[in-house]
Amino acid sequence: MKKFFILVILPLMILHSCSTKKYSVIHRNNTSIIVGEFPVTLLESENFKWYIDGYSKYVIDDSASLNMVKSKVGKFNVLVFIGTWCPDSREHFPRFMKIMDEAGVSRKHIKVIGLDRDKKLKGLTDKYDISRVPTFIFFENDKEIGRIVEHPRETLIKHIAKILSQVK
Question: Which of 31, 39, 63, 99 gets the highest tally of CB atoms within 10 A of its CB?
Answer without folding.
Answer: 99
